[in-house]
Q: What sequence folds into this?
């Protein structure tokens, strides 16, 4: 210890007391005394009234020992203050008290440790005409007025220097590994020596010393050359040494004293900065001459240090709040960006951009379901797999961060340039998927106050830590590490982890819902396809029958059937078109009705407001009116020459558009005895798909249907449309277009024979049919072809090789496809003319004529 006993003209001799304390300090220094009294000893050694003593409170036992050499008033004061030391690490303080009632004032510290009471007395070196709070309060305001942690620290160091009078005051902050650095310094401007920015190894303040700093917040060494007094006796009757952890006058390690001498420091003071129960840092104060600060002023210094700790904690809390706010904004943005139509892979770019706003990184990678997407400076896939396997050994539900990855995973030493440090955010459990942030190697110069790699030497104190003999700046190059991940970055990463898990769960739910919807839709499509195939077959049969009944010649019959089938194909193409743009409602009706009017366009009257159908409404409306037209052709007004249909559209003003269908002049209508699939489509499609209504009335005079569609699916047409046109007339006679042999490449025999017959009508000498590429090559080599018709898709292959072969030989050819629009594969073919299937005389005649007029292949 360094600071004990009461100094009087005639020192008090406690050794002559008839009740000797267990621990007694001799007269060793100029400003204090320490007395430790064991309650157990009192009970065992009291010379009188033992039974009465046993019934007294512990603080009264103190009075029984001290009443031989301290006044009764002093003992009462000490007993009163000891009652406030019931909690761990609590201390009672008395300032400027007349201990001997002779006018000499002392500052007193009292606390209990285990079964002992420790009382410390320091002579008052100044009078009582001062107010410490009046001094400290404006200092607190100055500290509080600063902004960031660095500015607050600088102001706190300056204020503490003014309050304590030391030559130099430093704010020393501990790092995560126990090392520390000076982040603020207040000193004489004329002093050329500075410790600002210097780093000190963890060995300078061992772990046990840091634990002690958490219990005892202030430690003063008034003079490093003071004599040290032993404790007499050294052990209690139980064989335990006295615990002086909270004693303000205890000595320090002789190694620390030598440490200070090496720094040419004669007096020092350290004040703990404790935040949330942990040692955040220290105020380190140095003076070139001995300097004593009385207990009352030291208490004010403690108050200033605690206020500084509060300000640091408040700013860290504010930074945490700001981080939480940014994380919430990030959550909201990610939830908006990753909607139902976008998964993590598609939204990776947006995720990376948003995370970059919250956490600084040099590269980012998404590893999900075996896919590896990256941005910035990242390792290759093989190296990342090593990292992924390493991450799989960590906790599945925690963010993992390190600024020194190679120390934990030496196998990635070759890619330190891009992943010296990582922050991994798990976004699943099985398989383990991650978003990983990378930081590159931060090779930097750290100013060490001495060599951190040589903390232990054999010196005068044996094989122990020897005080540093030189405080010259030691430059150490810190490699293979990245910039550290801050606590706010880790908190933000945890918020991102929760957000992404929420997104994944949302996407998973939507995927399951979409899968169920697709399954239901597939079942509906299968049922619809079955219905429509049967309907089309029946319709074609009816067309053939009606055409035969009205035809006057075989040629007329063939032409009528051919034109109507072509119109049906065009209607089907329009129904399944993928172009996403509004379509005129009148065009929908024209396509559906063209096959049946055959020049009788006056049988259909389309009136009212001209409207366009939104893309997401067109398919539904086409399906509904296809069913109406089909039923009318089979059973209603269009099944007889005298029948008519009126269609009218109107905006009702209540957010709905009314469309009416009225049949007249047809046979007597009878309501169906059973509800078929077509009737279900008419009645339920618009209410279900287009937020509208559907009413169908089977009147005797003709079917009457009223539909109402929400206005968001309908637009008022601003451009005029042509009147309903009849079916296109056949092209002029094309019997003399061709001569010589031709080839049809088609994998369906019936369709191929139909095309060959048409080409024969055009004058072809012979029409050869091929069902595969190999057969097409054989025919092309065996005959001098004058023309070829090639179906693009031939089952498991395409006709592209044949097209290129014919193009090289100068043989003109026509491409055919059964799909609406232009196939994507058409871009690979040589320039050519394309026709839609099914083949007709008109479409093939026009194509052949165009090809021959061009006079070049395709």
A:
């Amino acid at each position: 210890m360094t600071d004990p006993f009461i100094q009087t003209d005639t020192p008090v001799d406690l050794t002559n007391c008839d009740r000797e304390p267990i621990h007694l300090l001799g007269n060793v220094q100029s400003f204090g005394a320490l007395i430790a009294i064991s309650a157990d000893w009192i009970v065992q050694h009291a010379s009188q009234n033992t039974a009465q003593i046993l019934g007294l409170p512990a603080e009264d036992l103190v009075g029984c020992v001290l009443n031989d050499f301290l006044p009764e008033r002093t003992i009462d004061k000490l007993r009163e203050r000891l009652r406030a030391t019931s909690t761990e690490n609590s201390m009672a303080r008395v300032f400027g008290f007349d201990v001997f009632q002779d006018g000499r004032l002392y500052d007193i510290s009292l606390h209990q440790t285990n079964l002992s009471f420790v009382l410390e007395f320091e002579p008052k070196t100044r009078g009582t005409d001062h107010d410490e709070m009046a001094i400290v309060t404006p200092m607190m305001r100055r500290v509080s007025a600063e902004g960031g942690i660095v500015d607050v620290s600088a102001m706190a160091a300056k204020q503490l220097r003014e309050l304590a009078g030391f030559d130099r005051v430093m704010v020393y902050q501990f790092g995560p590994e126990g090392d520390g650095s000076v982040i603020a310094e207040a000193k004489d401007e004329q002093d050329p020596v500075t410790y600002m920015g210097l780093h000190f190894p963890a060995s300078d303040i061992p772990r046990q010393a840091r634990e002690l700093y958490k219990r005892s917040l202030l430690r003063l060494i008034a003079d490093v050359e003071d004599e040290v007094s032993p404790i007499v006796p050294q052990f209690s009757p139980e064989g335990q040494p006295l615990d002086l952890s909270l004693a303000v006058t205890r000595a320090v390690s002789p190694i620390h004293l030598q440490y200070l001498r090496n720094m040419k420091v004669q007096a020092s003071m350290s004040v703990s900065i404790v935040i949330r129960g942990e040692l955040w840092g220290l105020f380190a104060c140095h003076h070139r001459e001995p300097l004593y600060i009385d207990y009352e002023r030291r208490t004010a210094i403690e108050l200033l240090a605690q206020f500084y700790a509060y300000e640091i904690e408040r700013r860290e809390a504010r930074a945490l709040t700001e981080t939480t706010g940014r994380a919430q904004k990030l959550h909201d943005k990610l939830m908006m960006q990753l909607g139902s139509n976008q998964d993590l892979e598609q939204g990776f770019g947006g995720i990376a951009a948003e995370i970059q706003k919250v956490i600084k990184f040099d590269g980012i990678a998404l590893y999900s379901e075996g896919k590896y997407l990256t941005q910035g400076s990242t390792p290759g896939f093989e190296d990342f797999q090593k990292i992924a396997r390493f991450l799989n050994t960590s906790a599945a539900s925690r963010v993992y961060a390190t600024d020194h990855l190679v120390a934990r995973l030496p196998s990635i030493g070759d890619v330190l340039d891009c992943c010296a440090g990582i922050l991994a955010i798990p976004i699943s459990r099985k398989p383990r998927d991650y978003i990983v942030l990378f930081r590159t190697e931060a090779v930097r110069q750290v100013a060490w106050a001495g060599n951190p790699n040589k903390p232990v030497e054999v010196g005068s104190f044996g094989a122990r830590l020897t005080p540093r003999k030189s405080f010259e700046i030691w430059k150490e190059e810190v490699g293979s590490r990245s910039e550290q991940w801050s606590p706010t970055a880790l908190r933000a990463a945890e918020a991102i982890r929760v957000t992404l898990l929420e997104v994944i769960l949302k996407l998973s739910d939507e995927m399951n819902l979409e899968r169920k919807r697709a399954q239901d839709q597939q079942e509906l499509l299968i049922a619809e396809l079955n219905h429509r195939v049967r309907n089309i077959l029946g319709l074609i049969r009816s067309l053939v029958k009606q055409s035969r009944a009205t035809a006057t010649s075989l040629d007329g019959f063939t032409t009528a059937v051919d034109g109507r089938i072509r119109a049906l194909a065009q209607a089907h193409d329009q129904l399944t078109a993928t172009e996403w743009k509004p379509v005129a409602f009148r065009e929908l009706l024209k396509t559906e009705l063209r096959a049946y009017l055959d020049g009788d366009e006056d049988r259909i009257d389309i009136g009212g407001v001209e409207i366009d159908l939104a893309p997401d409404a067109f398919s539904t409306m086409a399906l509904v009116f296809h069913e109406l037209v089909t039923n009318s052709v089979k059973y209603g007004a269009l099944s007889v020459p005298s029948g008519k249909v009126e269609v009218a559209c109107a905006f009702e003003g209540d957010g709905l558009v009314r469309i009416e269908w009225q049949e007249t002049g047809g046979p007597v209508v009878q309501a169906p005895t059973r509800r078929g699939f077509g009737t279900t489509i008419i009645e339920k499609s618009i209410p279900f798909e287009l937020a509208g209504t559907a009413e169908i009335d089977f009147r005797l005079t003709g079917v009457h249907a009223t539909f109402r569609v929400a206005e968001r699916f309908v637009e008022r047409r601003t451009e005029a449309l042509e009147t309903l046109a009849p079916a296109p007339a056949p092209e002029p006679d094309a019997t003399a277009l061709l001569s010589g042999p031709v080839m049809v490449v088609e994998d369906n025999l019936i369709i191929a024979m139909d095309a060959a017959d048409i080409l024969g009508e055009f004058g072809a000498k012979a029409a050869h049919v091929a069902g595969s590429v190999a057969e097409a090559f054989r025919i092309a080599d065996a005959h001098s072809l004058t023309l070829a018709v090639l179906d693009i898709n031939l089952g498991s292959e395409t006709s592209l090789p044949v097209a290129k072969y014919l193009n090289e030989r100068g043989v003109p050819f026509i491409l055919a496809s059964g799909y609406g629009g232009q196939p994507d594969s058409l871009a690979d073919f040589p320039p050519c003319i394309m026709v839609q299937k099914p083949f007709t005389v008109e479409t093939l005649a026009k194509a052949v004529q165009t090809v021959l007029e061009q006079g070049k292949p395709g």
In short: The longest helix spans residues 487-550. The mean pLDDT is 77. The radius of gyration is 49 Å. The first strand starts at residue 23 and ends at 25.
